[in-house]
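In the current project phase, the collection of sequences with tokenised folds has grown. A representative record is quoted in full directly below:
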Amino acid sequence: MNGNLKKEALLELSKSLENDEYFTDAYILRGKILWTMGKKKEGNIEFWKAEAIDPDHPEIKEFLKIIKPEIAEFQKQTNEAIINNDLTRAFILVNKGLSCQPGDSSQLIKRAFIQRKWMNFNSALKDLELAS
């Protein structure tokens, strides 16, 4: 499927979601299309929207099997980097974790901690607001 067809498909799915915001399959399909376009973070966001509606959907269960170990590994590596005071590495890892699960409060708090250490107080505050 070429890029234009994918964009058209995304538009059609958006229209269908305007009519039914609980159309789980539309979110899942949007997520898959975004993944094929190299937009993993955006695709993951769509899957999390679908998960909020129907956590028992078979496609969501498969998504969680894939994404949860990735999230856990990023969290583990982030924690290790913070403990070792390797804040640059921790910042990169926490952002990778957030690309898997945007809005994860524990990751946002870690990022706020790093931002505070770097005296980026406005960014730290924004992350804390998002986490709350």
Summary: DSSP finds seven helices and no strands in the chain. Residues 1-55 form a domain with the Serine Threonine Protein Phosphatase 5, Tetratricopeptide repeat fold (CATH 1.25.40.10). The radius of gyration is 17 Å. The chain has two domains: 1-55, 70-132.
